[in-house]
Each structure stands twice: as C-alpha cells, then as structure tokens.
Amino acid sequence: MDNVASHEDWKVCFTSVAPGLLLFARQWVRSRADAEDIVQEAFVKFWRRNHKIDNPENIVARELFPTRALLYATVRSVTLDLISRDRGRA
C-alpha cells in the first residue's frame, strides 16, 4: 500500500489545492455549487485511483508536481463532462 496517501496528506492537499481548483472550475460553470461539486468529484476520482500524493509540502508551495497537475486535469475532465451532459439535456 505504498502508493496510497495518508489521511493527513489528503487533508493538506485538499485544503491547499481546492480553492484554486474551485476558481478553475468556475471559469466554465455558472454556479459556485456546480464548481464545488466538480472539485469534490475530481478528488473522489483521484482518490479511487489511489494516487500517491507526492509531497504535500510541495503542493502547498504551489510547485507543479504530478499530483497537482493531475488534479487540475481531472477537474477539467469532470467539468467538460458536466457541460456535455447539460448540452445534451437542452
């Protein structure tokens, strides 16, 4: 289980990266609630894949390590999926 991050690692990652991810998601969706749902879904998808958080301190320092980049890519993917579903309903 070497590649599974600890609870504390996830907490540090979420509290440091989530605000930026929220702003990133808000570029495409109208409501803050939708953006919050997107960020939450992105973290759940990331967690389910048991990704290792490389170094929480580096994420806090805003250095672009794989964890941070993958989270932004996941938010983008979830956002585009939501937009696509919404357009299909219209």
Topology:
Blueprint: H1 7-26, H2 32-48, H3 56-60, H4 66-89
Helix pairs in contact: 1-2, 1-4, 2-4
Could you explain the architecture of this structure?
By secondary structure, the protein is mainly alpha-helical. It has one domain. Helices cover 73% and strands 0% of the residues. The chain is built from four helices and no strands. The longest helix has 24 residues. The termini are far apart.
Radius of gyration: 13 Å
Report mean pLDDT, rounded to a whole number.
79
Uncertain residue ranges: none
Q: Terminal Cα separation, in Å?
A: 44 Å
Beta fraction of the residues? under 5%
What key attributes describe this structure?
elongated, about 90 residues, single chain
Quick rundown:
It is built from 4 helices and no strands.
